[in-house]
Amino acid sequence: MPLLRHLDELRKRVFKAFAAVIVGVGVSFAFTEQAINYLASPIGGSEALVSIEVTENIAVYMRVALLGGVILGMPVILYQTMRFILPGLQGREKLWLILGIPFASLLFVGGVAFTWFVMIPTAVPFLTSFIGITTQVRPASYFDFITNLMFWIGLSFEMPIVFTLLARLKFVTAKQLASGWRYAVVAITIVAAAITPTVDPVNMGLVTLPLMGLYIVSIVLAWIAGR
Q1: What is the DSSP annotation of 54-67?
Q2: In this predicted structure, what is the pLDDT of residue 198?
Q3: Percent of the chain at pLDDT above 70?
Q4: CA-to-CA separations, 76 to 1, 28, 101, in angstroms, rounded
Q5: Of the candidates 124, 119, 140, the residue with the CA atom closest to the CA atom of residue 43
Q6: In the prediction, which pLDDT does 96 show?
């Protein structure tokens, strides 16, 4: 039956993607300690972190190793996803998918890089020195903070892909996006306030401005997709 064949094909693709992540985790164990030291550099290095639970250090170590494994296995995950989807698409749809996945990956990486090189160096000193109170940072809370921040900002950088897809499906048009820029400003400001770990306008502005730029890019891509 076609359904059983599709389910069997999906099972094989998922298994290969999962195996790639397992292999990636095994490889990431070789440099997990160096990765932890690098990620802790905005706070002054791993020696600046204070653990208060017996299992906290190993939990952080495993979290970073798992994150590294997912990153290393991501090319295989994307490849297996494309191999499963492409046979059911037509020529033009295949082209959109082949171009869209690398573009979406670049946008996400750009959001993560923006968070690491711009947001975190600004936010961490502000948070740890606010009103002059000494802050002893726990490894678990620190790595939760920076990984969540990088993930959500990286995800918000996918805005052009989302609007391009909506325009391709005729749910929105470039003209509607351009005429609704006031609502977009309000929505982006709310998203920036929810993502930003601080309430000061500087850090909110650091998130709001690139998102507004991506909204303009979304209008252009929506116009191309509409055509």
Answers
A1: TTHHHHHHHHHHHH
A2: 62
A3: 93
A4: 28, 16, 12
A5: 124
A6: 74
CA distances from 192 to 20, 63, 146, 185, 195 (A): 34, 26, 16, 10, 5
pLDDT in the model for residue 73: 84
Q: CA angle at residue 184 from 179 to 188, to 5 degrees?
A: 165
pTM above 0.85, yes or no: no
Q: Is 137 helix (H, G, I), strand (E, B) or coil?
A: strand
Proportion of the chain in helix, strand, coil states, percent, rounded to 5: 85, 0, 15
Segment 80-108 shows an average pLDDT of 76
Structure tokens of 109?
């990486």
Rounded to an integer, what distance in angstroms lies between the CA atom of residue 20 and that of residue 117? 29
What count of other Cβ atoms lies within 10 Å of the Cβ of residue 186?
10
Residues 124-152, buried b or exposed e (16+ Cβ, 10 A)?
Answer: beeebeeeeeeeebbbbebbebbbebbbb
Written as six digits, the tokens of 19 are 């195996």
The two three-digit tokens of residue 116, written as one number: 């690491």
pLDDT at 199 over 70: no
The rounded distance, in Å, linking the Cα atoms of 183 and 105 is 27
Q: What is the DSSP string of 16-81?
A: HHHHHHHHHHHHHGGGHHHHHHHHTGGGT-GGGB---STTHHHHHHHHHHHHHHHHHHHHHHHHHH
* Spatial separation of the C-alpha atoms in residues 171 and 208, rounded to whole Å: 25
